[in-house]
Automatic annotation (TrEMBL), chains A, B:
Protein name: CinA-like protein
Family, as annotated: Belongs to the CinA family.
HAMAP family documented for this protein: CinA_B
Ranges where the MoaB/Mog domain occurs: 2-161
Organism: Rubrobacter taiwanensis
Entry superkingdom: Bacteria
């Protein structure tokens, strides 16, 4: 991780869970596979906090040092736990080994006095150990294993030790307004201290996070509610959802409520809209089919885009976006057809049609609406152009559905 | 970030750049928007290291505290820099404001004696300041802004100050073998200290990273080369690429070399294969079109899957995977057709066809080959099933192309 080959998602996941338990998180620290530095970090963290969680370094290889360093930091011996040995042997037996690779027995060693954390998904068990009155809990780095171990074994222990209270957050999502412009409208709220309101921007969307600390979840909600109302009274026009909502889940819910169906016609986004739409479980209720027409010939043959349009205006043009959306709707027999065609780069831009020029189209019962996007500010990033194009296309459909209820 | 609402990708990006400059990275630390804790972390880091980079906290709002805390840690005054004030005014003028929002003038304040870091993409300039002989450089949290500022302004400064030497990594990618089984085969290499070899697993792929430290890039390469050859001599069968290669980029390169074309037919992956294939710039050279047939009726109408097959075997079945691959190839007129149909969950599983059952198919000139995947171990994660299905489908095509050169 210190070489940058891997992005740490575990810290974010654990932090969300801890916040929900009312635990204030003061630091995330990442340290390399080095005995002295791991041991020092464990001691420092234990001196600073009441609870320390670690992920990674529980594997069978020689650079997996967490247990050894934890034993050293706590001044304890590493000892073999028979139940851990059995767990490892069973795990390998299940996949057809008569005995585990020798190195895996290392995973049966824990600081003396540890309470083990069961791992239903892998060979690496975790441990809970006291270090100068601080609870240290170790987890493997594999997210799925860490998550189930935290939920099933460690959360109850933390809950029992903690003073109570909760930190609750509510996130409001906006689109079609920049971060500065949005912050201006709610500057007085951003200066409050309880609840706090903080803005965060990314890929054409802006969120405001309201965070309250209180004795109970209900009290925290009571503190958040009026602030949320105040924000929405000022920014309703740009608001599209809360918390885990995404543009695709919101659009999906709107379609489902109306019993309406959607087809997609994608060129430069190359399947990204379809992928995001089907990230949402249950999307088969409204998503019928998607066409990734990456060649001009596909646009003609599959969507019925007239050859003359492509010749005269080029694939990235208003008439082609219009014909793609209409074609998808017609071929699929759906209520709506949504299209994207653009220059995602890094190559393929011209003076007339630079990287970042994108046309989106929405075919509905009464016609087709189109929008021109200028994403040339993100010309260095193919993925930014594609994600922003998808966001704007979903938002075009969202706005249409809101206005035509 | 401490509330877990955001995953930190900047640390990984900066770490890769620093490693390439031969800088050893000892720690990543994340700390909250709190004056005392930010100031303490800056002091600690400066005491420990020769170089400290920070991201985030340079915005116009009241919880943006980096400059204030840096001034405090360095014992300097915050002063207004006229060139920063002009930069902000120009940026807002470009988007049609006569003057910036008042709060943005905060972004013109820096610790006295700072060297400013220009930001061509946003209003937040960075600063380089000396703190007890340590160079501290601050960046905004927006990745695109941070990256261009590092590359254009800070890297040259670090290069000039550093002792020289490089840390070079080479990553080898494998598929079709588990992490433990792979580690067993190269255990002796994993125990080496220079170069080091470390395994890492994820979504059905395993990578081995070889890392060497040397005076020059050429020397580091000399150290890596024999280790790479040794690894490949043992694991050639599972090897698919190196460094930034992905299954989709490797498959794309193979298709392009052969002048061959591909069409996709996706059900449970819902556009993910198309999205990943078109993440690769230049993919239009071999990717013709993709069908996201999320309904049975779409599979019949677009791909010509016989109605009887769907009734008799269900959409998730060998015959349907076969018909989808063949249909895509035929309709698109491509050399190859690749299909995926499965139960991605969380709903929709039955005893006979549980969540995680996936069929993949590859249609080529002489027929169709299919494979059954059992991904039920990941039944809790729709995204894991979809990503692993995509990996296995791309690998099916990769193996076929390797064997039929």
């Amino acid at each position: 991780m210190l070489l940058g080959e891997l992005v740490d998602t575990n810290s974010a996941w654990l932090s969300r869970r801890l916040a929900a338990l009312g635990i204030s998180i003061y630091r995330h620290t990442t340290v390399g596979d080095n005995r002295e530095r791991i041991t020092a970090v464990l001691r420092e963290a234990a001196a600073r906090a009441d609870l320390v969680l670690t992920t990674g370094g529980l594997g069978p290889t020689s650079d997996d040092l967490t247990m050894e360093c934890l034993a050293r930091a706590a001044g304890r011996e590493l000892v073999e736990y028979p139940e851990a040995r059995e767990h490892i042997e069973r795990a390998f037996a299940r996949i057809g080994y008569t005995s585990p690779p020798r190195s895996n027995y290392k995973q049966a060693l824990f600081p003396e006095g540890s309470a083990l954390i069961r791992n239903p998904l892998g060979t690496a068990l975790g441990a809970m150990v006291e270090l100068d009155g601080t609870l240290v809990a170790t987890f493997p780095g594999v997210p799925a294993e860490m998550q189930i171990m935290f939920d099933e074994e460690v959360e109850p222990v933390i809950r029992a030790r903690s003073a109570g209270g909760v930190i609750l957050s509510r996130t409001l999502w906006f689109v079609g307004i920049g971060e500065s412009a949005l912050a201006e409208r709610v500057q007085d709220l951003l200066d409050m201290s309880d609840p706090t309101v903080a803005p965060l921007a990314g890929q054409g969307r802006v969120r405001l996070r309201i965070t309250a600390r209180a004795g109970t979840e209900e009290e925290a909600k009571e503190k958040i509610r009026p602030v949320e109302h105040e924000i929405l009274s000022r920014l309703r026009k740009y608001y599209f959802g809360a918390d885990d909502d995404t543009l695709e889940s919101v659009v999906g819910r709107m379609l489902q409520e109306r019993g309406a169906t959607l087809a997609l016609a994608e060129s430069c986004t190359g399947g990204l809209l379809a992928k995001r739409l089907t990230d949402v479980p249950g999307s088969s209720a409204y998503f019928r089919e998607g066409f990734v027409t990456y060649s001009n010939e596909s646009k003609e043959r599959l969507l019925g885009v007239p050859h003359e349009l492509l010749v005269q205006h080029g694939a990235v043009s208003e008439p082609v976006a219009r014909a793609m959306a209409g074609g998808a709707r017609e071929v699929a027999g759906t209520d709506y057809g949504l299209s994207v065609t653009g220059v995602a780069g890094p190559e393929g831009g011209t003076e007339e049609k630079p990287v970042g020029l994108v046309w989106i189209g929405l075919a509905h019962g009464e016609g087709v609406i189109t929008e021109r996007l200028d994403l040339s500010a993100w010309a260095r990033s193919r993925s930014a152009i594609r994600e922003r194009s998808a966001n704007r296309a979903f938002d075009l459909l969202r706005r249409y559905l809101s206005e035509h209820n």
